[in-house]
Design a protein that fits this description.
By secondary structure, the protein is mainly α. Helix content is 80%, strand content 0%. It contains 4 helices and no strands. α2 crosses α3. The chain is elongated, with a radius of gyration of 35 Å. It starts with a helix and ends in a 7-residue tail after the last helix. It is found in: Nucleus.
């Protein structure tokens, strides 16, 4: 009983979301094709708006290329941040040394 209710609820969900209509239209289009395609799955994917296998492979290759570029840029960014931090530290050290030298060179009241 519960299993039948779940099936019915799922069927209503598919119907209300438009999935049944979309699938029916695609299957009718496939049925009406005079020259049946070699890949029915690819036909259905194309009709539903999905990429072809070659488009999918091209997108995968592009994604991999972009991921590699991203990784390279991220590494360069991290290196630049490290160098910037080193420069900041060296500037702060230089400023501290300068202050220390000024303090040493400033005459004291007792020096006169």
């Amino acid at each position: 009983m519960e299993k039948e209710a779940k099936k019915e609820a799922f069927r209503k969900y598919l119907e209300s979301s438009g999935v049944l209509d979309a699938l029916t239209k695609v299957l009718v289009a496939l049925y009406e094709e005079n020259d049946k395609p070699s890949s029915a799955v690819e036909f259905v994917q194309n009709k539903l708006g999905g990429p072809t296998l070659s488009e999918y492979e091209k997108l995968q290759a592009e994604k991999l290329d972009l991921q590699m570029k991203y990784d390279d840029l991220l590494a360069a960014h991290q290196e630049a941040c490290r160098e910037l931090e080193e420069l900041r530290n060296s500037v702060q050290m230089g400023a501290a040394c300068k202050v220390m030298n000024i303090d040493r060179e400033t005459p004291k009241d007792n020096d006169f």
